[in-house]
Specification:
heterodimer, A: about 350 residues, alpha/beta, Rossmann fold, eight-stranded mixed sheet, three-stranded antiparallel sheet, globular, B: about 600 residues, 4 domains, seven-stranded mixed sheet, six-stranded mixed sheet, 20 helices, TPP_enzyme_TPP-bd (chain A), 2-oxoglutarate ferredoxin oxidoreductase subunit beta (chain A), THDP-binding (chain A), 2-oxoacid:Fd_oxidoreductase (chain A)
Chain lengths: ~350, ~600
């Protein structure tokens, strides 16, 4: 039985097992070597708890990473894995996904790996819609090189390489992914295991590239970067969790909501607007998804979590495989005939 | 030897190509050399816009496209100016007079019309108003003047076909197929081709015609083939011989793109081509596919190799099969994109961080690309390593007859994947080849992690242990050093040579031709040509030491010479040229003769 029988298009072709799996089965024998308190531990734990629920054969799961703290991830997973080179994981994973329809391929990357040195591969992978699940651990700092600012660091950031403050303008990873034609974009917090697991599940189910941005705390070089989102009082005014098909309200009692304003969206008090003015999330609406990603600058005044966009589009790997399979079915692989071509001549003794 | 030269929009490559096909179909041995600008349409009528195609065909086996043409066809003043220097005294010059306007002459710096002064008197000059004659021949077709004039290259081809008694059916059939969707253009080209043929027949200007009989080649079935096509076919063959799929990850670059174009046509052989976003992604995709159990291939030229270096290093570290094709061109940087050079040897050898050895295989002629690429794939699969394949612009675009191999005689390239969890260790090694197991995802019980960090011997776990690193560096080196490659064969027909000329890659033709010439002069010389640059053949040191002098001609500043001196402590004579053009047999003849005379003096 393969996952297609389970009705999970994202995993079509990947063999499943009836054997009961637990998180422990996904832990490798390698000692985890992230710093104490690193957000990566929570993400690792969430992934190891979530994967057994897919019922896939473990040997058909592959984690490919680049370079950076988060890219050590594959060593801790008892699956197949490749810890590759800086920024290139999406390219390597693309080759693997093209060659092997029977694998569930995951890319683990960070804000430096994916958005700086590997920016080109990221946008083109999303554009092609290769069937990869990309987990982008965003801690808004370079950790492994010991504390330089990253492409998601806030302007003015004082770091080892910017002693009087960074003058760089940061990327908004969700806006970037949507601009790169991503067919699935989600965001979650390392501290919210349930929210993270929900986004991971929807990513796994999606056939095509799925980019999941995970806000992740670096306790050594950028501690507390997301603290305002973790403080319960602050969080309820700032975090906007969206669910496809549901009106976008937030706050403890749903006292805030999202409404249309000009060409974009704005936050309003639910009491001040008519219920019909509250925007209903539609993950297939690219303009709405993009406007959600622009609700505030990256100063975390507002942070949307959940699935911004989910749209069906033929994946690159399925497309090229279909061409190859059609060619194989319609034309015999006759090497001798190919080598002879159209115009030959024969020399006789 | 014929050279067609014209503006890059004049269709000279097509004209040359067709004449080549006619010669091949007739059974001549042949070698060709196109030479064209990097710009797609350089300004019309200028020297930088000149495109030419040289064809050498004969009734005996030949080694090079030739140094100097016997016949030069010049379609405009720029083509004349750029090429006439190569025409020997008494050579035949056929000129399209229609383009010799004052304006065109001035454009390329002619003060007076060379067709009217005496500057061309040492040649047999034939002035033919090709455009006018073509337009006249096409008058009744109703085709506009501009379109009609564009068929003048076929007029030239027709004229040459008459001069050399070439069969014409092939070209007419070709034109009808090429322009199948535009039958009026097809007919116009056929008419222009015939007009040229009849022009030769009816005017009395051409007193002499030439018959070149079929060459006496070895018994077999032949076709004409370019280096890039032979490389692509070699990859298709390797897929069949190994029963593995191929994934080509690549980015378009001159002069390697035709390998992508060709392979993209052969999906029925389980070949997937991915045109990536950049060079780095191209090789990343190839390596990812290799990790998944396919033959990962990437194709590029020198600048692309520079970008791919880090991933080649990852291939060295993860010990996965990977075929890296470098069709060398003039460098450094963007250099001379459409010209040839052999200056990537040291980049291939050393162009990565750390001790990162890779095998290097270089084909010696267009048709040799087939066997050489099959051999490169053999090494990649058997030893689980990236392999650098160094073709070059001269081989890639040049063509020659190829005796088509019987597919039954091609080597078996099948490999075994690891399957047994009981004995599996990611970095255990085959005692004979030192290759590690190829354990592809999807194999139950073999879950493991690999990557660019140093590996612990056997287990493949991350290791920073000093002794282990030293051991692994030496193991990776020993694996490459131990690759089985055939002994180098020395060609010394007289058996008494004291001078050895050593070459590699595309210089095989000119070196071989020069060696024949000096032997005819009574000067013995031995010739050894290297297909394997890393590791070198086991007998190479002994061969080098058994001659008084070793001379190494290269289209670089002495890269092979440097390697030979370093490894064998042999004081080789390095002869170098980097003009973007292949060596001429004539110049190498002089170089060899000087050295041989020096030795015997």
């Amino acid at each position: 039985m393969t996952a297609i029988d389970l009705g999970i298009p994202g995993l079509t072709g990947v063999p499943t097992t009836d054997e009961k799996q637990s998180a422990r089965d996904y832990k490798s024998d390698q000692e985890v070597r992230w710093c104490p308190g690193c957000g990566d531990y929570i993400v690792l734990n969430a992934v190891q708890s979530f994967l057994p629920t897919l019922g896939l054969k473990r040997e058909n799961i592959v984690f490919v990473s680049g370079i950076g703290c988060s890219s050590r991830f594959p060593y801790y997973m008892n699956t197949y894995g490749m810890h590759s080179i800086h920024g290139r994981a999406p390219a390597i994973a693309t080759g693997l996904a093209v060659a092997r329809p029977d694998l569930s391929v995951w890319v683990v990357t960070g804000d430096g790996d994916a958005l700086s040195i590997g920016g080109n591969h990221l946008i083109h992978t999303l554009r092609r819609n290769v069937n990869l699940k990309i987990l982008l651990f965003n801690n808004r700092i370079y950790g492994l090189t010991k504390g330089q600012y990253s492409p998601t660091s806030e302007p003015g950031k004082v770091t080892k390489s910017t002693p009087i403050g960074s003058v760089d303008h940061p990327f908004n990873p969700v806006s970037l992914a949507l601009g790169a034609e991503a067919s699935f974009v989600g965001r979650a917090m390392d501290s919210d295991k349930a929210g993270l697991t929900s986004v991971l599940r929807q990513a796994a189910e999606h056939r095509g590239s799925a980019l999941v941005e995970i806000y992740q705390n670096c306790p050594i070089f950028n501690d507390g970067a997301f603290d305002v989102l973790k403080d319960p009082d602050e969080a309820e005014r700032r975090i906007i969790h969206v669910v496809d098909g549901e009106p976008i309200r937030f706050g403890r009692e749903g006292e805030y909501c999202v409404v249309r304003e000009g060409f974009g969206l704005a936050v309003a008090k639910s009491a001040d607007v008519d219920a019909s003015e509250i925007v209903v999330h539609d993950a297939s609406d690219l303009n709405l998804s993009f406007a959600l990603s622009r609700l505030s600058t990256q100063d975390l005044t507002h942070t949307v979590t959940g699935v911004f966009r989910r749209a069906d589009r033929t994946t690159y790997d399925d497309g090229v495989r279909a061409q190859v399979n059609e060619a194989k079915a319609s034309k015999a692989a006759d090497l001798s005939k190919l080598l002879h071509g159209k115009d030959t001549w024969t020399v006789v003794g | 030897m014929i050279r067609f030269a014209g503006d890059s929009g004049d269709g000279m490559q097509l004209t040359g190509d067709r004449f080549t096909s006619e010669a091949a179909a007739f059974g001549n041995d042949l070698a060709t050399q196109p030479n064209f600008p990097a710009e797609i349409r350089a300004p019309q009528g200028t020297l930088p816009g000149v495109s030419s195609f040289q064809l050498h065909f004969a009734d005996y086996d030949i080694l090079t496209p030739g140094d100097r043409p016997d016949v030069l066809v010049a379609m405009n003043p720029a083509a004349l100016k750029a090429n006439v220097v190569d025409l020997p005294d008494g050579g035949i010059l056929i000129v399209n007079t229609d383009e010799f306007s004052k304006r065109n002459l001035t454009k390329v710096g002619y003060d007076s019309n060379p067709l009217e002064d005496d500057s061309l008197e040492k040649f047999q000059v034939h002035k033919v108003a090709m455009a006018t004659l073509t337009i006249g021949a096409l008058e009744e077709t109703g085709l506009g003047k501009k379109d009609a004039e564009r068929a003048k290259n076929m007029f030239a081809l027709g004229l040459l076909s008459w001069m050399y008694h070439r069969p014409t059916e092939g070209t007419e059939r070709f034109l009808r197929e090429k322009f199948a969707k535009k039958p009026d253009i097809a007919e116009a080209n056929v008419l222009a081709f015939r007009a040229g043929f009849y022009y030769g027949e009816t005017t009395e200007a051409f007193a002499v015609t030439y018959e070149v009989a079929p060459a006496k080649l070895n018994v077999g079935t032949y076709r004409q083939i370019t280096g890039n096509t032979a490389t692509a076919y070699g990859i298709v063959a390797a897929a069949q011989l190994s029963k593995l799929p191929v994934v080509l990850g690549t980015y378009p670059i001159t002069p390697a793109s035709d390998i992508l174009h060709e392979l993209s046509k052969h999906k029925n052989f389980d070949i997937t081509t991915v045109q990536a976003e950049d060079e780095i992604a191209g090789i990343g995709i190839a390596l990812g596919a290799s990790y998944g159990g396919a033959i990962g291939v990437t194709s590029t030229s020198g600048p692309g190799i520079a970008l791919k270096s880090e991933t080649i290093g990852l291939g060295v570290m993860t010990e996965l099969p990977l075929l890296v094709i470098d069709v060398q061109r003039g460098g450094p940087s963007t250099g001379l994109p459409t010209k040839t050079e052999q200056a990537d040897l040291l980049q291939a050898m050393f162009g990565r961080n750390g001790e990162s050895p890779v095998p290097i295989v270089a084909p010696q002629s267009p048709s040799d690309c087939f066997d050489a690429v099959v051999d490169a794939t053999r090494i990649a699969l058997k030893y689980r390593t990236p392999v650098l394949f160094l073709s070059d612009g001269a081989i890639a675009n040049g063509s020659e007859p190829w005796m088509i191999p019987d597919v039954e005689t091609l080597p078996d390239l099948t490999v075994e994947f690891a399957t047994d969890p009981e004995i599996f260790q990611p970095y255990s090694r085959d005692p004979e080849t030192l290759a590690r197991p190829w354990a592809v995802p999807g194999t139950p019980g073999l879950q493991h992690r690999i990557g660019g960090l140093e590996k612990q011997d056997v287990t493949g776990n991350i290791s920073y242990d000093p002794e282990n690193h030293d051991k692994m560096v030496r193991l990776r080196q020993a694996k490459i050093d131990g690759i089985e490659v055939p002994d180098v064969v020395v060609e010394d027909p007289d058996g008494n040579a004291r001078v050895l000329v050593v070459g590699w890659g595309s210089s095989y033709g000119p070196i071989g031709a020069a060696a024949r010439r000096v032997r005819k002069l009574g000067l013995p010389v031995a010739h050894a040509h290297l297909r394997h640059l890393n590791p070198f053949p086991k007998n190479l040191g002994e061969v080098l030491k058994s001659y008084d002098k070793v001379i190494v001609p290269e289209m670089n500043l002495g890269q092979l010479a440097l390697l030979l001196r370093a490894k064998y402590l042999v004081d080789v004579v390095s002869y170098t040229k980097v003009q973007g053009l292949p060596f001429k047999a004539e110049e190498l003849q002089d170089v060899l003769a000087d050295v041989i005379k020096g030795v015997s003096a």
